[in-house]
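INFO worker-7 received task bundle
INFO bundle size: 2
INFO processing item 0
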Amino acid sequence: MTSVSDGVKELRAPLTVVAPGERGATRIADRVVAKVAAQAAGEALGKLPRDATRPHATVTVHHGTARVRVHLELDYPSDIGDRCGQVRRHVVERVGALVGMEVPEVVVHVERLHLVPAHGAAQGRTR
């Protein structure tokens, strides 16, 4: 198809529709997914114990699915199983929403427990 514009001929290719599978793909690096997972774990935990380190994650991505390992520290006493379940659910939800990947597995490693002093308990050593 040709068109004339100010006396200059332009060649324009006819518009074609490219199938979505042929347009290319966006690849999200494993480390980006790991950062999203670590942030989600921190969101699920809420306030961390005073001397706890922030959660970190490692991720393996394969064909649009992400297998996640989250390493974190918890306060004690608490329901450790329930807290780990909250972390798993929130990581699956947030990685799916933000990155668009299915997360069939979230392994939670509790690295350390932090003893939370009871209200009114005396500070110091006891024997």
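INFO item 0 finished
INFO processing item 1
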Amino acid sequence: MSCHPYAALAAQGLLPVLRNADADEAVRRTTALLAAGCRAIELTTSTPGWAEAVARTAPLTDAHDRPALIGVGTVTTTAEAESALAAGAAFLISPYPAPEVRAVATRRGAVFVEGGFTPGEIASAVRAAGAAKVFPAHVGGPQFIRSLKAVLPEALFITTGGIRPDETRQWLDAGATAVGIGTGLPEDLGELAALFAELARPCCAHCARPER
């Protein structure tokens, strides 16, 4: 049994969101992130050949020999959801309410972080799966997350949109479970590793006592 994606995301704090020119570039970038100690990574359907990239990276492990958790973002249709799961996606993410994807996730028992921005959209996603993607997060700012946590204290929030890597901590302090970052991540492996090490929090009991 592997760690639940929610536990891994909470432990990691920062979720890289990759939009690449092609599958090969996505695989290279994902491999570098895994080598830096990142475990959960979001590949988006905006990358040509994204399903191939998921299939090639899902079997990999990170620098700590933990199985990679490759999610697929910008999933908005039944076909995309089915293709992502067939390729080995560990979780699905949409940028806004996507009832078609929710239906697939429910039927397949898949992890789906549904997007929303209004309190009603976010609450609906949380009621369905315990988590929501808050997008575009920068419009509301960290204080918006604090307000949401006041009425949805047990909810998990993945905040994405317009956030720089050096702002990650303030979003986590405001109550975000993890922060999606699409641009500005260091290219240098050492800098990447330092960033993930700085943000790392304990994961689950299974992760603390890995099977060998």
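INFO item 1 finished
INFO post-check item 1: The longest strand covers residues 14-18.
INFO post-check item 1: The chain is about 45% helix and 15% strand.
INFO worker-7 idle
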